[in-house]
Write a structure and sequence with these properties.
Elements lengths: L3 E3 L3 H10 L8 H10 L1 E5 L4 E3 L7 E7 L2 E6 L5 E7 L4 E2 L1 H6 L6 E4 L3 E7 H10 L1 H27 L2 H12 L4 E3 L6 H8 L3 H13 L3 E3 L3 E4 L2 H8 L3
Antiparallel strand pairs: 1-2, 2-9, 3-8, 4-7, 4-9, 5-6, 5-8, 10-12, 11-12
Helix pairs in contact: 1-2, 4-5, 6-8, 6-9, 7-8
Length: 232
């Protein structure tokens, strides 16, 4: 199933861009320039937005929906590097390095994106240094996230990584399981396989730390779960 480009309403586009945290504080003239060059696309669940190794085409912005950035091993095993939410940027590394995409981007659910073509972005960055600062800040945050991921994968067991992720994603004591958050997706985010994840979930549940239900996971003992999340 192919993506399709959508005709953006100029006024709505400017309003939406101005409300995004990644573009907060940009001068109106720059927002207007962005609005003129932005391309709008829609992707259905499971569609590939970008492939690892493809040439850089521009800077992507998630308008609605969810994307995931992944790497695949030669055996086909998937490691999720990050989940991208509305307002987040992707493709910054390729833009700055003028290099192929280092990751594959896939839609987790029906998703609308904006793309600022690389040629337009290069021109705008020359005239508006503030835009470069924004893209660089976002890239730095992504690097910090990847450093945390490396620490997780190298220093923590699957149970520890699971406990840490549950605490990070909880609202109150509830972790909502969205439709796309399947066991396979959770496993890919934790750098493991499904049967190991299921074993870790059962272990935490048997210890009375969590309760696993179809649509949510309830944290029963946050202090105990935090203790399990610490590297030792």
């Amino acid at each position: 199933m192919n993506s399709h480009r959508m005709q953006a309403d100029a006024d709505n586009l400017l309003v939406s861009l101005s409300k995004m945290a990644c573009f907060e504080g940009l001068e109106p003239a720059l927002l207007a320039e962005l609005g003129r060059c932005v391309e709008s696309y829609h992707y259905d669940e499971g569609q590939v937005v970008l492939l690892e190794g493809e040439p850089c085409t521009g800077l992507g912005i998630v308008r609605s929906g969810r994307l995931k950035a992944i790497r695949l091993s030669t055996s086909g095993r998937e490691q999720t590097l990050s989940v991208l939410w509305p307002g987040e940027i992707y493709g910054a590394a390729s833009v700055f390095a003028d290099a192929p995409n280092p990751v594959t981007i896939v839609a987790l659910q029906p998703t609308d994106i904006w793309v600022i073509p690389k040629e337009s972005l290069d021109s705008l960055q020359e005239r508006y240094p503030r835009l470069t600062q924004i893209v660089a800040r976002n890239l730095a945050r992504r690097v910090m996230t990847l450093v945390d991921l490396v620490e997780d994968l190298s220093l923590r067991t699957v149970e520890m990584r699971l406990a840490h992720q549950l605490l990070a994603n909880a609202r109150g004591n509830i972790v909502q399981r969205e439709a796309w958050a399947t066991q396979a997706e959770m496993s890919a985010r934790l750098g493991t396989v499904t049967y190991v994840l299921n074993r870790a979930l059962r272990s935490l549940e048997e210890e009375g730390l969590i309760r696993v239900e179809r649509d949510e996971i309830t944290i029963i003992d946050a202090e105990g779960l935090a203790a399990r999340a610490k590297a030792r």
